[in-house]
Amino acid sequence: MNASIELKNVSKSFGKKTVLQEINLSIAEGQIYGLIGPSGSGKTTLVKMIVGIDAPDSGTVRVLDVKVPDLELLNEIGYMAQSDALYPELTGKENLDFFASLYPMKKSHMKKRIAYAADLVKLSGDLGKKVSAYSGGMKRRLSLAIALVHDPKILILDEPTVGIDPELRVAIWNELFHLKSEQQKTILITTHVMDEAEKCDQVAMVRDGAILASGTPAELKRHYGVNQLEEAFLKAGREQR
Ligand SMILES: Nc1ncnc2c1ncn2[C@@H]1O[C@H](COP(=O)(O)OP(=O)(O)OP(=O)(O)O)[C@@H](O)[C@H]1O
């Protein structure tokens, strides 16, 4: 099977600081892939390279076998950034309409997609309100709906469940599982939360701009002889030093 997302020897520095060093990553289609690592380890920088928002200093990024950046590829990627990029003076519905209109979709299909995405994040009842009146969690939920609205093959979600209550978090994860198994979506997610990493098919542990280890959660725990993924992460970090 071809990889949906493939990074080869990707490095990036900001000034003198090396933020990513020689990253190699291959994510198969139809997987939920987790990037787990502490704050500042380089996860966001890495996903921005995959979306094409930022360019590596060296190395290559390919998505669906197309070299990034590529404008058409954006039709196949749903990106939820860590900070919400919403229009506060517009309503939730107007935000969804606007972002959906950026993609080639028939009006009737667009309407269905907006209803589906709003329902998924339990915002259907609040779509008429201005985003400036939304709570932090509601804004995250709207951002997730926007990432999904054009039915992309690949979802890239940067800490999607931060500020979302446990019940909705479970509902969102169930939908991610559904999108994977029913529609073979490829889902890349960054998280600090170990119990979310446990739900991923594959996990890469990121630290100081490098991938310390990768594999299924079970493989990683077995490799490090531990019962918790968190312990595997700590052991991998100690071995690196
Ligand atoms: N545009 C930039 N200019 C300078 N430094 C940057 C820039 N973007 C990121 N960095 C630095 O790169 C490092 C990695 O940041 P990044 O946001 O990728 O980490 P992260 O793992 O996503 O962290 P968090 O979990 O807190 O979001 C940090 O030291 C950060 O300060």
Could you name the CATH homologous superfamily? P-loop containing nucleotide triphosphate hydrolases
Q: Would you list the SSEs in sequence order as H and E? A: EEEHEEEHHHEHEHEEHH
CATH architecture heading: 3-Layer(aba) Sandwich
- Which cofactor or ligand species appear? adenosine-5'-triphosphate
Can you list the strand order of the major beta sheet? 6-7-8-3-9-10
Unreliable parts: none
What is the oligomeric state here?
A: single chain
Q: What is the CATH T-level topology?
A: Rossmann fold
Biggest sheet record: 6 strands, mixed
> End-to-end distance, in Å?
35 Å
Helix content: 25-40%
How many DSSP H or I helices? 8
Q: What's the total count of β strands?
A: 10
General shape:
globular
Rg, Cα atoms, Å: 18 Å
Mean pLDDT rating:
94
The assigned structural class equals alpha/beta
Percent strand: 25-35%
Furnish the topology, listing elements before pairings.
Blueprint lengths: L2 E12 L2 E12 L3 E5 L6 H9 L6 E6 L2 E2 L9 E4 L11 H10 L5 H14 L15 H13 L5 E5 L7 H18 L2 E6 L2 H4 L4 E6 L2 E6 L1 H8 L4 H12 L1
Helix pairs in contact: 3-4, 7-8
This protein binds adenosine-5'-triphosphate.
The site of adenosine-5'-triphosphate has 11 residues, from helix 1.
